[in-house]
Fold this sequence. Notes:
Chain A has helices spanning 6-19, 69-78, 96-102, 109-112, 115-118, 147-151, 184-195, 219-229, 237-245, 293-302, 325-338, and strands at 24-26, 42-44, 51-55, 60-64, 81-82, 119-125, 131-135, 160-167, 169-170, 174-181, 201-207, 210-217, 232-233, 257-262, 275-279, 284-289, 306-311. By secondary structure, chain A is an alpha+beta fold. Chain B has 4 domains: 10-103, Uridine Diphospho-n-acetylenolpyruvylglucosamine Reductase, domain 2, CATH 3.30.43.10; 110-227, Uridine Diphospho-n-acetylenolpyruvylglucosamine Reductase, domain 3 (2-Layer Sandwich), CATH 3.30.465; 231-340, Alpha-Beta Plaits (2-Layer Sandwich); 346-479, Alpha-Beta Plaits (2-Layer Sandwich), CATH 3.30.70.
Amino acid sequence: MKNDNTEHMQAQINEAIASKQALVIRGGRSKDFLGRKVGCTHLNTLEHKGVTNYEPGELILTARSGTPLKEIKKLLAEQGQMLAFEPPAFGNKATLGGTIACGLSGPRRPYAGSARDFVLGTKIINGKGEILRFGGEVMKNVAGYDVSRLMTGAYGTLGLLLEISLKVMPSPEQQTTLVFEHNAEEAIQRINQLASQPVPISGACHLNDKLYLRLSGLTVSVNAACKELGGETLANAEIFWEQLREQQLPEFKTDKSFWRISVPPTTAPLSLSGETIIDWGGGLRWLASNEPQQSIHNTAKKAGGHATLFRNHDGFGEVFQPLNPAIKELHNKLKHAFDPHGILNPGRMYLDI
Amino acid sequence: MSQPSHTQSDAILEKRRQIVTELGNKLPKDCLLHNPEDLAPYECDGLSIYQSTPLAVALPYTVAQAQQVVRYCYQNQIPIVPRGAGTGLSGGALPHEEGILLSLARLNTILDLDTQARTCRVQPGVRNLAISEAARPYGLYYAPDPSSQIACSIGGNIAENAGGVHCLKYGLTVHNVFEVTILTAEGELMTLGSEALDSAGYDLLALIIGSEGLLGIVVDIVVKLLPTPQEAIVILAAFHTIKEAGDAVGQIIGAGIIPAGIEMMDKLSIQATEDFVHAGYPLDAAAILLCELDGIETEINETTARVNEVMLKAGAYQVRDSENDQQRELFWAGRKAAFPAVGRISPDYYCMDGTIPRKELANVLTKIGERADLHGLRVANVFHAGDGNLHPLILFDANKEGDLDRAHLLGNDILELSIAVGGTITGEHGVGIEKLGGMCSQFNEQELTQYHAIKAAFDDTGILNPGKAIPTLRRCAEFGHMHVHEGKLPFPDLPRF
């Protein structure tokens, strides 16, 4: 079948099992920089592409993993819909498979939900070369364990994604961004206060002593909230949020180690040296810093969160927050349950999974 | 299906004596029930057609006591069946005859409510509605609202990934939980998820939610609270055909409106509930839709106008907006009373729980009607229309020879039908003991094997809720269920009894 490359990829996995040669799963290579560096035999998903089902009235879209993300976004936009987790693409070539495998979500995440929240079903090839289907194209489904959500953010270490079914959402009628002068501490407090009120927030970030608050919804609701909140209206706001999501704002430029620190949203500014951009209404701290890895992991852990060395690293050391031993053991067992020969992206997340 | 056994084997009695002595020593006196009259209330959950007596019921007051129970069971390889409020509808908490039923009902404390972070830390036995009641003074609430929310516990909600009428807009349990702490099969405490918006490593939190107590026993939970919507309205629309009503739902959503809830009832449900609660439903309708909209006043005014327009355009012959909170509640009262109302027109009913793509609704309901006629039974349908979750209620009389069997056969037909149109055998009630046969149809051997491998990663000796949720391959072979391949039944036009 045209654009269905399942057979070829399954054969490649079977070959890898036979030759005990690990595979590096690759789509558009937009997120090569993420995670640890792994082997050199590539399995390419780009030929496995296409939206196989889209039902706007049912809020469901299914596409093959190699489908370009921008193609999906365009198709949705034509129907006034969107991916509500606002995934960062990090380049023009991002695929849906890579987006879900990395499980990254954009500024709308705290208010709309994360990548895994919108995943309804997947078809995968596990490390035994078996084609398996979990979940489906329906919103509610409690038959069997939720393997589809487990696949989200597993960096391809548990299975090769073939198809992904997503819940999609209507795009808001109106979006307005308000800007307030606040230091980081005040901004975190204010965002959390507002989030406990029925205000249509769809994004809240802080940089350069300014709080940016995006409101989305019906025009009447957004206008009512703007009137109540005051602040300056940001011109060209759409570009601002896109550049924030894609890390293209000048504030993201750095030669220092660049960290993604996920913490409970009410956490006060972290006592780490460097420059911080706050996103996710306080839940995400992007940090450019020369502090040692250990102290960043410790600080994140102490705050009840975790840190990822996101950019500017060689890919050979630990990148993700170390797991506690019991959880790590469970990861090893799950890896073995899906990929007993250890051929799918081994080492991409942690050295031995 | 097993009945409470009156001639219990000596081996079972001996095992019970041993447990009472050994485990009884580790727990306060009233934490271990073993007399037949004390065990009787625990013989079934909300699906009472399945009953079984456990060796003992453990009712710990503390997490440490629950841990003692699990450790003891692990050391002695005794099956554990966890139970919350016992309201589950798939027999997930059906006791194991050679096991201990672990009730979490006494772990019922709300530990912390953080209004700034909009989170609430609770023990598993806390009732779903109690969380929203505790949060109400702060203008917050816990969104998932299964219809049993007055009684069901949050621990059980996590085991089943419970939904409710508002989940199209506000999500299921999995979307509203930050963190859980489980007791592993070995009796160790393990925290999955966190109060941050994600965690390092695999998403084990998503995996544990909806796992029906097979992977761990939840003893501590942090849920997400949302700001309470300021206003709400319910629109009641009546249609002459099911198809028009189904299409109207797609058109509302297609117009960019996500209702807080959108429910459908068919003719038999409407008649049964109208006789019962007098909600003012039109008795001549083939289907009604109840559409709830929430938000600030100006927003509601605008969406109400739009929804009215779409409903009329889609063929509604009557559209009424609730004029005040009292009328809104009355409109809902009928829907909420649908199950007991059906209970009034039939001695027994059997509630199904398939999810289907909404575009298949008219087709599926027609086929359900045809199958029901073949079995000589009636079916009333209520439908979480926004998310495709269909609850056909099969009416039968258990005292009538063969009726229960016919209800089961019809139920199986309905499950197969759900799978055949690309849906699932259970949207929110879980597989439990009830739908193991359906699992053999929905999943192939390799998929089931993968599920068993996941189970083994958490519980390699299989002591947690054994025999539930995921059927063994042998059981599927014995059932002789056919796997529906790519949504196509072999010989789709053959009547199947």
